[in-house]
Every structure is written in C-alpha cells, then in structure tokens.
C-alpha cells in the first residue's frame, strides 16, 4: 500500500511539473538587431538602443529585443529613455517595467514562418502614452543590411490591433495622436 501511495505522489508531482512548463517560441537573427541605431536629419538626432531580452507570458517564453530611445532637436534633448534596460519580464505577473520602452520580436510557432529580416515592434511612447501608456503595436524594424535598418511605426494598424471588435471603445479613442519620435526613417548602426 505504501508503494502505491509513493507512486501516486510521484505521478502527481511529475504531472504538475510537466503542466507548468512553458514553451519557448523560436526566433531568428535577433543578434543582428542588437546595438545602437541612429537617424540624423539636420539638427534632429533620433537613437534606438536594442538588447536581447525575454518576455514570459502565461503559456510561453518569448525571446526578443528590449529597447530604449533618445531624441534631440537643435541640441536640446527632447526624449531621453536611454537607461538600463531589463533582460527579463514576466508579463503574466508584473506590469511592464518602467525602463522598457520598446519590445520587438519575430517569434512564431514554427521556425519556417519567420522572416529573419523583420521584427515586429511594440512601442511605449512616453510622451503620447498610447492607450493610457500601455503602448502600441503595429510597427516593425526591417533589417536592410548589417548596418542599416528601416524603423516604421504604423499608428493606424496599432489602433486597429488594439480596438478591433471592442464595442466599448469610442471613435474618439480610435483617433491617431501621433508619435513623439520619427515614425518612418532609415537608421544606421552606431
């Protein structure tokens, strides 16, 4: 009888630990995006810094890029969200870390669906505060070469992703408010 109880206990413990495991979704080529990227047009300087990081959700682990940004115009710093970045975020338990301003990834459920030259972007604009500061998706980074990217934020698409099918959101809440940073630029690796 004691042996049966031990076997049942081991079975329950093993089943519980297997049920608690999270899958890690595959990504491709994230290392190519790591670093500081710069756009300069006359007296406007916009920088994005990306490093590898993980977001842990309820059922999966997402490898991706955590980022910060910086903007100066005519030598005056307008946006400076450039500090230490987190390397890990458990989004199933914690709100977005205060020092995470960009989340980008090309994760998918299957490796062959991933284009290694694109990552989707979730942008947390600290001045415009889309959706009350929850950030906005719909953007992407296109890797043009090892030293050049196309940074694109698509507000209309991000609004659609966030509000489609939600009848509680008014038309006024669906209106674009713009971005505090350039939203369609070519950036060079610093």
Question: What would your notes on this structure say?
Answer:
The protein is mainly beta and 190 residues long. It has 2 helices and 11 strands; from the N terminus they run αββββββββββαβ. The chain has an 8-stranded antiparallel barrel. A hairpin with a 2-residue loop joins strand 9 and strand 10. The chain is globular, with a radius of gyration of 20 Å. 25% of the residues are buried. About 8% of the residues have low confidence.
**Overall pLDDT:** 88
Strand element count: 11
Give the distance, in angstroms, between the N- and C-terminal Cα atoms: 69 Å
- Helix proportion: 10-25%
Give the ordered list of helices and strands.
Answer: HEEEEEEEEEEHE
Major sheet, described briefly? Answer: 8 strands, antiparallel, barrel
Helices, by number, come to: 2
Give the overall shape, derived from the CA principal axes: globular
Radius of gyration: 20 Å
| Poorly predicted runs | 4-19
How are the strands of the largest sheet arranged?
2-3-4-7-8-9-10-11
Query: Helix- and strand-based class?
Result: mainly beta
What amount of the residues lies in strands?
A: 35-45%
Protein traits:
190 residues, eight-stranded antiparallel β-barrel, 41% strand, 2 helices, mainly beta
Brief digest:
The protein is mostly beta strands and 190 residues long. The protein has helices at residues 2-19, 155-163, and strands at 23-25, 35-41, 44-56, 60-73, 76-81, 88-90, 102-105, 118-123, 136-145, 148-152, 184-189. It has an 8-stranded antiparallel barrel with strand order 2-3-4-7-8-9-10-11.
């Amino acid at each position: 009888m004691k042996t049966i109880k031990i076997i049942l206990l081991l079975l329950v413990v093993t089943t519980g630990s297997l049920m608690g495991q999270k899958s890690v979704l595959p990504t491709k080529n994230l290392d190519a995006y790591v670093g500081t990227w710069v756009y300069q047009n006359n007296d406007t300087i916009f920088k994005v810094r990306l490093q590898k990081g993980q977001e842990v959700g309820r059922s999966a682990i997402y490898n991706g890029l955590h980022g910060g940004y910086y903007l100066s115009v005519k030598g005056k710093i307008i946006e400076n969200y450039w500090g230490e970045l987190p390397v890990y975020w458990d989004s199933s338990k914690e709100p977005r870390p205060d020092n995470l301003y960009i989340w980008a990834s090309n994760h998918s459920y299957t490796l062959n669906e991933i284009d290694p030259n694109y990552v989707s972007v979730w942008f947390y604009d600290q001045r415009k505060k889309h959706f009350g500061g929850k950030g906005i998706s719909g953007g992407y980074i296109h890797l043009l070469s090892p030293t050049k990217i196309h940074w694109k934020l698509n507000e209309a698409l991000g609004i659609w992703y966030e509000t489609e099918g939600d009848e509680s959101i008014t038309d006024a809440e669906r209106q674009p408010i713009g971005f505090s940073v350039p939203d369609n630029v070519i950036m060079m690796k610093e």
